[in-house]
Amino acid sequence: MDEVVRSGDWWRNEGVSVERFERDFAELEETPLVLAVTSGTHALELALMSAGIEAGARVIVPAATFFSTWSAVQRHGATAVLADIDLDTWTLDPTAASAAAAETSAAAVVPVHYGGVPAPLADLGRSAPTLIQDAAHGPGIRSQGAPLVQAGGIVCWSFQQSKLLPGGEGGAMGFADEATYRRALTLQNCGRIPGTPGYGHLAVASNFRMPELTSALLRAQLERFVDLSIRRANGASRLRARLAAIDGIVLQRARSGDSESHYLVQVRLTSTGGTGRDEIVERLASRGIPVSRTYPPLCEVPAYGASGYDPAEAAARCPNAMLVGRTGLSFHHRLLLAPPDVLDWVGDTVAEAVTSAAERFS
């Protein structure tokens, strides 16, 4: 960071730190073509532009995900079509995605690796011509042992404050082909080809360039990422073992052969939901445990109905997303770095809270 500050070159077109970060991140994610950008949300928007998704085109997104997955499609001028999730992985259900894509002649599908659990990319990639992956809950995700980009299309990561590789803000994109990468490189630089002097703007585009200072912070974070990932994996294994023993809890699970990033440990409650779930969250949070409700289904976000969509129709088509939205709990990754005795205490505290809520609300 000090080196970048002293250089006086704080923007990408004159500095070297962003390119160094791209090389380091590409090595981590086994992705030859990486482009650093301003945020994970911007990565999704730029992916739609770079892939040539036209205004008005249909794009399949999971009904259970963070708002940006949906809003990026809307801001692009395309139409987001919600599809249901699988109740084990909480990721986009291939059958639901294929049905929605066939019904709407979808141009793209956007699987989300929710909580760091990989979506079934081989199946989902067959549902639409273009694959854009939302890997905001990475890095560190592998699908059946392979890097995400091997499935094709574009992969989008986020480096927002709460993420596994935090830079305050920031994002990155990985590309399966060089032509799409070159388009994105131009579109993120106000329509200019990098290295071209002056004002040779070749396309109507915006500025999605990552600042040099952000990249310097991220390079420092990369130095400890692998060690922290190992600690998180060990912590997740211990916490999940405790949670799995609690009556009334079902864990989100990755498929055999997949490697998750351990961004979140997530469960759903079978004995209570709604008010009971919210009371559990408040009780655990009051004890200092980093837990939250899962994302609400997109059809329950006010902007969804305000954009002309029918929330009731979407809810009826996506019962699994609705169930997870009512009954889900998310434990943040910073908890997974806690000592074993703390994780055991968390498991015991969750058991007490779930049992108490079940008695009151069942």
UniProtKB/TrEMBL annotation:
Q: Which terms under GO biological process does the entry name?
A: polysaccharide biosynthetic process
Instruction: Give the matching InterPro entries.
Output: DegT/StrS_aminotransferase, PyrdxlP-dep_Trfase, PyrdxlP-dep_Trfase_major, PyrdxlP-dep_Trfase_small
Q: Which UniProt keywords apply?
A: Pyridoxal phosphate
Asked if the keyword Cell cycle belongs to this entry, the reply reads: no
Cofactor names: pyridoxal 5'-phosphate
Q: Name one GO molecular function term.
A: transaminase activity
N6-(pyridoxal phosphate)lysine: residues carrying this PTM: K163
Q: Which residues are responsible for catalysis?
A: K163 (proton acceptor)
Q: Which Pfam families match?
A: DegT_DnrJ_EryC1
As for family, the record states: Belongs to the DegT/DnrJ/EryC1 family.
Family matches, as PANTHER family: DTDP-4-AMINO-4,6-DIDEOXYGALACTOSE TRANSAMINASE, TRANSAMINASE
| Protein name, UniProt field | 3-amino-5-hydroxybenzoic acid synthase
* Taxonomic lineage from the root: Bacteria, Bacillati, Actinomycetota, Actinomycetes, Propionibacteriales
